[in-house]
Amino acid sequence: MLKPEPRRLLVVRYSTHSAQVILKHRFPKESGDVEAFVDVKLILQTLGSEQTDVGQWVHVIGYLTFVDQNPLGSKTTPRVSVQALILWVARDLDLGAYEKSMLVDAKAKH
Predict the structure, then answer these.
(1) What InterPro entries is this protein classified in (predicted)?
(2) I want to staple 22 with a disulfide (CB 3.0 to 4.6 A). Which of 3, 13, 33, 86 is the partner?
(3) Predicted confidence (pLDDT) per residue in 17-52, tens digit
């Protein structure tokens, strides 16, 4: 079983046709991009336009439905698919402080 890794993600695209939000955040920078394809069908009735605006930072709680971890040296972007149960805007986000805390947490685990 994969251990969840906390990430704060940025909306890069929203498809009303598929009810899918695509999120990205390149952190740590040397690890490259990771894309999260978030299915929001279960929460459409409560989903507002602010939560799907391109450039919006959001939090997501849900179930991983697919993980594509590419082998080292692969040129494709790793992807995960998530069935969202809750999605909300990350207000008052201090991205620098968040990334610093993630580095400290990663060092503590090793």
Answers:
(1) NA-bd_OB-fold, Ten1_fungal
(2) 13
(3) 999 999 987 665 656 677 899 999 999 999 999 999
85 neighbors 103 (Cβ within 8 angstroms): no
Residue whose entry in the numeric block shows the structure tokens 């955040």: 25
Nearest residue to 47 via CA among 91, 12, 16: 16
**CA 39, chain centre distance (Å):** 12
Q: Kindly report the pTM of this predicted structure.
A: 0.72
**Largest CA-CA distance found in the chain, in angstroms, rounded:** 43
Residues 94 and 52: beta-carbon distance below 8 Å? no
What spatial distance separates the first Cα and last Cα of the chain, rounded to whole Å? 19
Mean predicted lDDT score pLDDT of the chain: 81
Strand partners for 66: 81
User: Taking a C-beta distance cutoff of 8 angstroms, is the pair 33, 74 a contact?
Assistant: no
